[in-house]
Design a protein that fits this description.
single chain; 92 residues; alpha+beta; Nuclear Transport Factor 2, Chain: A; four-stranded antiparallel β-sheet; 3 helices; 4 strands; 36% strand
C-alpha cells in the first residue's frame, strides 16, 4: 500500500474539518476494527487531512498483537488502506 503524506491541522482548521466529516469518529473506528478482524482493539483514532482528503487515521491492534494503520474516508466511510505496521509508528 502507498504511504500517504500527513498534514497537521491547526485547532481552527480541525474544527472546520470536523464539521465537514459525515462519518463520526466512533463509526470510523468501528469500520477499522471490522477491517482488521475479530478480537482487534483500537489504540487511537485521529482526523487528518491527507492528500487533500479528510480521513481518519486509526491504529488497531489485531488478535495476534500486530499493529495496523487503517485509513477511513471521513466523508463516505470507505476503507482507503489497511496496512500492518510496527508499534514504533504508533508511538510517534
Amino acid at each position: 500500500m502507498a504511504q500517504f503524506p500527513m498534514t497537521v491541522l491547526t485547532p481552527k482548521v480541525e474544527l472546520l474539518m470536523k464539521s465537514l466529516a459525515k462519518v463520526t469518529l466512533n463509526d470510523a473506528t468501528t469500520k477499522a476494527l471490522s477491517a482488521v478482524g475479530p478480537g482487534s482493539i483500537s489504540e487511537s483514532t485521529d482526523l487528518i487531512l491527507q492528500n487533500g482528503s479528510l480521513v481518519y487515521n486509526v491504529f488497531v491492534m489485531d488478535s495476534n498483537n500486530n499493529f495496523h494503520r487503517v485509513y477511513v474516508d471521513a466523508v463516505n466511510g470507505k476503507i482507503l488502506s489497511n496496512t500492518k505496521t510496527i508499534a514504533t509508528l504508533f508511538l510517534r
